[in-house]
Amino acid sequence: MVRLGWRPAGAIALALTAIGAALLTRLDADSSVWADLVPGCALLSLALGTAFVCATTAAMNGLPHQEMGLASALVSTSHELGAALGVAIIPTIAGAILEGGVEGAATAGTGCFGNAFTACAIIAAAVAAVAAVLLPAGRPDRSEGPVMAH
């Protein structure tokens, strides 16, 4: 982020999140853990971690010390709300396919999560586009040093 700035770092991280989710769309009952599951999960987790750091540093940059606790709480709440929505939405989409009587869905098992991960990839790509516009254009100031406010 110090080299690229918040806007490009956040947009790239979220685009990589979309790619990681897209890699998981190809999972089915015959998928290999190492060839099919691990690459998508690894990319997804590394990219989301970068996006979270970008969001936190962008939200807290330049704030007076007395407001950093509130900013940190808002960022943490947003992260938790996003995670809760993700945990609710992914199984709901997959479960709707199983319950909806889609041809072969009951025997496919993990294949039902393909549409759920497709939704994740689309949402991450849309958020990447929004981040490219809404994140601050600047970079973190190295001269401020680390601030312990979390």
Task: Explain this structure.
The chain is mainly α. Helices cover 70% and strands 0% of the residues. It is built from five helices and no strands. The protein has helices at 6-24, 33-60, 68-99, 105-108, 113-134.
What would the average pLDDT be, to the nearest integer? 86
Low-confidence stretches: none
- How many separate helices? 5
Largest sheet: none
Cα radius of gyration in angstroms: 18 Å
The SSE string, one letter per element, is HHHHH
Helix content: over 70%
In terms of structural class, how would the helical and strand content be classed? mainly alpha
Strand content: under 5%
N-to-C span = 19 Å
Number of strands: 0
What does the overall shape look like? elongated
Describe the protein's topology:
Layout (H helix, E strand, L loop, with lengths): L5 H19 L8 H28 L7 H32 L5 H4 L4 H22 L16
Helix pairs in contact: 1-2, 1-5, 2-3, 3-5
What would you say about this model in short?
The protein is mainly alpha-helical.
Overview features:
single chain; 150 residues; mainly alpha
